[in-house]
Every structure is written in structure tokens, then in C-alpha cells.
Amino acid sequence: MTSPLFVGPVLVIGSSGIDLVGRASQPIQHKTSNPAYVRMSFGGVARNVAENLTRLGMEVFLITAVGDDGPGHRLLEQASQARINIDHSIIVPDGETGAYLAVLDERGNLHLGLDDMRVTSAITSAHLRQKRDLFKQAQALFVDANLTPKTLATAIQLAKQFNVPIAADPTSLSLAPVLTEHLSDIWLITPNEAEAGAICPHPVPHGSPSDAIAAARHLVSEGVEIVIVTMAEFGLGYATSSESGHLRAIQTEILDPTGAGDALTAAVIFALLNEIPVDESVRLGLSAAALTLRTAGTVVPNLSLELLYDQLN
To answer: What is the pLDDT at residue 7?
Structure first.
């Protein structure tokens, strides 16, 4: 097992919000109320990645935006308690903290998701330029596609200026295309099949390892160093300039899929920064996703490198 190197903080920029997730207790009937188990937690792609990284022992600076409201203040308080540095995040007067509403079927699969991350637009290019010293000291940058195109471009420009590797999450089918013009600058990208299809020439059918690998190879040909295309219960396809392959998912109970992809991304970033080989890093990502799938929340509270390896073994 590799000991953490801890050579600098990871700078995480993007969305945070409140997750409201309901899992139906029987097959969903439309146009009527359905009995369900409903839970609330803190979420948002960037926030989830930040918390996973800190629980793995890394120093993290989070630049996000919340409203000047009860949920926003509670979110920042929880992030601080989780040892995430929030000193450079933004509280927006009269703004409303972001929210994500998910409806899961009785098997725990996502039936419908709605998100409102408008407050993330308060993270501006000017704000990031004021924080250029954070880019200078970072060992990696993570961004999600909730950022405005201009802010995303500024974040990438600043990271490039200081030779900081850039990890990106396409976030959703509708947001993924914003990353297309930046592919040659990205170190790591982790789309699911639908998001990969939005930034590749052809759709990626669900459950097709060969198509997932082909999409990953295409994105590598566009300049991305490491590509992981996730396929839920079918595992993932990945590629670099020198290797590619398919890894099966770890079979586990699905209690709640919210945050599983963010956990995978964070674990892979952690492993790669600690010089763990790509194939092993990807397996650790699968382990993190499986642990999150059976957690009633967006982040495994006792996440650790040892826990990731224990599950693999």
C-alpha cells in the first residue's frame, strides 16, 4: 500500500448545495404520490469531491458559492468541520443555495434528477484571478461544469500558467459540451456514458464496454491524458496514451447512487497524485463508488485508503 505524499493542496472549484433524495418503496406510479424513504444531505459535485479528498487525508481548498441563507451557512459549517478550507468561497447576498432533487426507483436507480445551481454563477473570473496564489500552490485543480464558460476558461488558464494538472467532471448531459474546447488541457476527465456521448462524435450505448473504451480513446486523441467513462452496473472503460481497458463494477447493494461518481473521481485523483499506477488508481475509484452506493448519503463518512483496499481484497 502506498503512503500518501501530501505535496500540496488540491484546489476544487464548482457547485455545492442541498441534496433531497427520495427512494420509492415500491414501483413508481406516475401522477400520484408514492411511498418512499426521503433523506437530505449536503451535496454538489465540487463539494462532494472536496469532502472525499479530505476524508482520504488530502488538504483541500474549496471555491464554491452559496446563498446567504440557513442551508448555505450550514453547508459551509459542515465543510469546515470536515476540514475543507472554505476561506475563499462566496456567500451571495439575497442568493439561494443550490439544490438537487433526485427520485430513485425501488431498486435505487435514478428515475429523475433536477438541479438548481444558479448561485454557482457568482464564482466569476475576477474572483478566481484574485485567488491566483491558490493556483500557484496547488498540486491539482478540479472543476465541475456548473461553472460559467468564462469562469471555467479562466480557471483552466490559471492552472496552465502554473503547470497545475486539471481534472474535470462533465456533471450532466446538458453541461458536458462546455468542456469540449478545453480537452487538450485536461489531465483527467470522468464522464458517464451519456456525458461521453455529448463530447464525442458518437453516442455511447449503455452497457457497452467496447463503446466506452472507444470513447475514452477518442478523448485521449483530443488531448486528455486519462479518461474514465463510467457505466454504472457495467463498470467503466478507461484509456491513456499507452493503455486502455474495461473494469467490471464491484457488486454491491445500491442504497443511494447519489455521489458515487464524485467518490470515484476523488479516489482516482488521490491515487494518481500519490503515484499509484493508473490501473490501480481506477480500481480504487471503483471501490470508492461501491462504498458510496451503499451509504445513505453523498460521502462515506469513514472513507480511507485502507477502506478502499479492504474492499478490493
So the answer is: 66
In-domain check, residue 195: no
Does residue 64 fall inside a structural domain? yes
CATH of the domain at 300: 3.40.1190.20
Q: What backbone phi and psi angles, to 5 degrees, belong to 124?
A: -105, 165
pLDDT at 2 over 70: no
Range of the domain at 88: 10-16+44-97+122-164+250-312
Whether 90 is in a domain gets the answer yes
Domain total in the chain: 1
Phi/psi at 150 (5° precision)? -65, -45
Is residue 209 pLDDT above 60, yes or no?
yes
Confidence tier at 24 by pLDDT (50, 70, 90): very high
- Set of cell numbers at residue 197: 456521448
What are the helix (H) ranges across the chain? Answer: 45-55, 70-81, 125-130, 132-137, 149-161, 193-199, 209-221, 260-273, 278-293, 305-312
User: Is the pLDDT assigned to residue 1 strictly greater than 50?
Assistant: no
**Rounded Cα–Cα distance for residues 214 and 192 (Å):** 13
